[in-house]
Amino acid sequence: MALVNTKEMFEKAYNGGYAVGAFNVNNMEIVQGITEAAREVNAPLILQVSKGARAYANHTYLVKLVEAAVIECPNIPIALHLDHGPDFETCKSCIDGGFTSVMIDASSKPFEENIEITKKVVEYAHDHGVVVEAELGTLAGIEDDVKVAAHAASYTRPEEVEEFVTKTGCDSLAIAIGTSHGAYKFTADQCTRNEKGILVPPPLRFDVLEEVSKRLPGFPIVLHGSSSVPQEFVKMINENGGQMPDAVGIPEEQLRKAASLSVCKINIDSDLRLAMTGTIRQFMAQNPGKFDPREYLKPARAAIKEMVMHKMIDVLGCNGKA
Ligand code: G3H
Ligand code: 13P
Ligand code: ZN
């Protein structure tokens, strides 16, 4: 099948109590690792591209890699999504250039301005059969070149969501309930430590999610910043020359709960980066004489595939739903 937008995916996910995984892609091995996982567990899939990915790999290369994946996985619905579109022009360029879904992220702007920019993107996107994700509330962490300190982040205000969705016509809404971008989601003083000395982050604000869902029945909610930062990969990195002290993510059981509620799309990027980097570091340390990139990218791609399969089966619950 051709690339699809996320409309039907989200309807099924909402009614089925699961979420579709949205994974960031930057090169061929990442695209292959993710799509091989989706094909193996028969899951719908969102491949997303950030402004940074377009700057790194080039729009055309990324679109063609995703089109290749669509050919290789004929039975899986795949959407191509712009992650954190910073302005109308970037969204337009992706809509004109083959994407089936875009995010306009004007969450750092005042409420009225966010509405105005989002509405403009929605009008253009809908005219072209493309769906739009918008955002209300601010996540902490790093996305593209924007760094938001934890104290500057703010939860979504449920009393604003109906007006925002009605006035903009957006198709899904990313909300801030305590997730955060990157591998260092929380400072040590925001966390407690468990008996093994591992940092335990504050729980997600399910009360905010529930209040938003009550006000927007049937409407798909999106969670960004949802990597869990698996400690086995942090350890693998640190044992092989890396330095990532106190990297901490969102516990998977909390994401599983969110997926069973109104959350239809969960964004995961950092966990794939950790799996890829840990695997390459370990390979390099164990094979100092090797220099063929295929030899270290092959296990890295396999690690991404394994990570995505785990997410689809144990966290998102989207396996078998293609
Ligand atoms: O939220 C941002 C994603 O993890 C993409 O990251 O801007 O480094 O491509 P990037
Ligand atoms: P993580 O950094 O938690 O993987 O979040 C990715 C994300 O939200 C992409 O938009
Ligand atoms: Zn994000």
Would you summarize the structure shown here?
This protein is of the alpha/beta class and 322 residues long. 46% of the residues lie in helices and 16% in strands.
Please describe the structure with a list of short key phrases separated by commas or semicolons.
322 residues, alpha/beta, TIM Barrel, eight-stranded parallel beta barrel, two-stranded antiparallel ribbon, 12 helices, 16% strand, globular, binds glyceraldehyde-3-phosphate, binds 1,3-dihydroxyacetonephosphate, binds zinc ion
Question: Could you walk me through the main structural features you see in this protein, from its secondary elements to its overall organization?
Answer:
The protein is an alpha/beta fold and 322 residues long. The chain has a single domain (7-316), classed as TIM Barrel (Alpha-Beta Barrel). It is built from 12 helices and 12 strands. The strands form 3 sheets. The protein has an 8-stranded parallel β-barrel, surrounded by 10 helices. Strands 6-7 form a two-stranded antiparallel ribbon. Helix 2 (28-41) links the parallel strand 1 (20-24) and strand 2. It is globular and about 60 Å long. It starts with 6 loop residues before the first helix and ends in a 6-residue tail after the last helix. The mean pLDDT is 95. Bound molecules: glyceraldehyde-3-phosphate, 1,3-dihydroxyacetonephosphate (13P) and zinc ion. Zinc ion binds at residues 84, 143, 181, 224-225, 267. Glyceraldehyde-3-phosphate (G3H) binds at residues 24, 50, 52-53, 83-84, 143-144, 181, 269.
